[in-house]
Amino acid sequence: xxxxxxxxxxxxxxxxxxxxxxxxxxxxxxxxxxxxxxxxxxxxxxxxxxxxxxxxxxxxxxxxxxxxxxxxxxxxxxxxxxxxxxxxxxxxxxxxxxxxxxxxxxxxxxxxxxxxxxxxxxxxxxxxxxxxxxxxxxxxxxxxxxxxxxxxxxxxxxxxxxxxxxxxxxxxxxxxxxxxxxxxxxxxxxxxxxxxxxxxxxxxxxxxxxxxxxxxxxxxxxxxxxxxxxxxxxxxxxxxxxxxxxxxxxxxxxxxxxxxxxxxxxxxxxxxxxxxxxxxxxxxxxxxxxxxxxxxxxxxxxxxxxxxxxxxxxxxxxxxxxxxxxxxxxxxxxxxxxxxxxxxxxxxxxxxxxxxxxxxxxxxxxxxxxxxxxxxxxxxxxxxxxxxxxxxxxxxxxxxxxxxxxxxx
Length: 409
What we know:
With 409 residues, the chain is α/β, with parallel strands linked by helices. Helices cover 55% and strands 12% of the residues. It is built from 15 helices and 8 strands. An 8-stranded mixed sheet has the order 3-2-1-4-7-6-8-5, sandwiched between helices. The termini are far apart.
């Protein structure tokens, strides 16, 4: 029983120090820094790449928003990868103004495979582009997106994540949960780390990559979360990713719980794959480079599923100590509340702070704010489920909202 108590105290300190570190880093998002100097004042040439599988209902709106960019039209091309499509995605994309590549591969259907296939073609062609931006078919893009990404490229940054906003935050408590989660990540994770000189992460869509970065190896990802995998490989190599608050992309999120559960399960499995494949490399890079950036990348991996497992172990030890009279009833309740309150109540307060800082309308989001702990709590259940049952099959998220850029900008 003494050994269990010592282990309990050690785990308490580990969990507490971890979250204290996250809090300190998050506060740095409030610091306003001077803009980086321009290294090369140039209008670069871009590819806008859109992997799309049966997205006839939304792809036209995305292509339309890209054709309206405040950037010279001759300096960017819009490519749609119609990936194993059986609908009118290719036809609608062409009509809207995109260059369409149709791809058919029954065995490799994921976004990562589509990007690898397309970029390999462009590398072989020695295509005359300086950088590319990647979008999901359900996105719509702010008119200054490419302009602001070009500025980042001119400042010497070669991989940059844009600001991921939501185009349907008030559709349901589920879509509201996604919106609050991404708004929080945008400021308290990505911006905070960018301000500190650490590394943000690629976040699925709305990101820019200098073409030279992928020319040696192509788009080389294997996991279900190709965005996180690509980010971690850059961090392991000692290279920081950039962040662009003013390069905005609007994303459509699921409104139903079943679709959300399936999507987040897939993300969790992808994170587990990254943990398995890259934890050792991140630890080695931290030792070799001896930078806080590499250590922070290691903490990202440790802070997802492993920290969740440590918390479960800690709660289990608390119950064992209670049953063995190592803890009083009040001590048990106090220990449980120590984890339940931050998990279920603090996120609401944090979300309100984020919305005030970023001038998001709070009134339409009250239902989502009240249900946000339920959204996060369901994610904990997903993590627990994926510890034992890992579903790797891709399930399409239906996008049906006809929302144009003028409706959200």
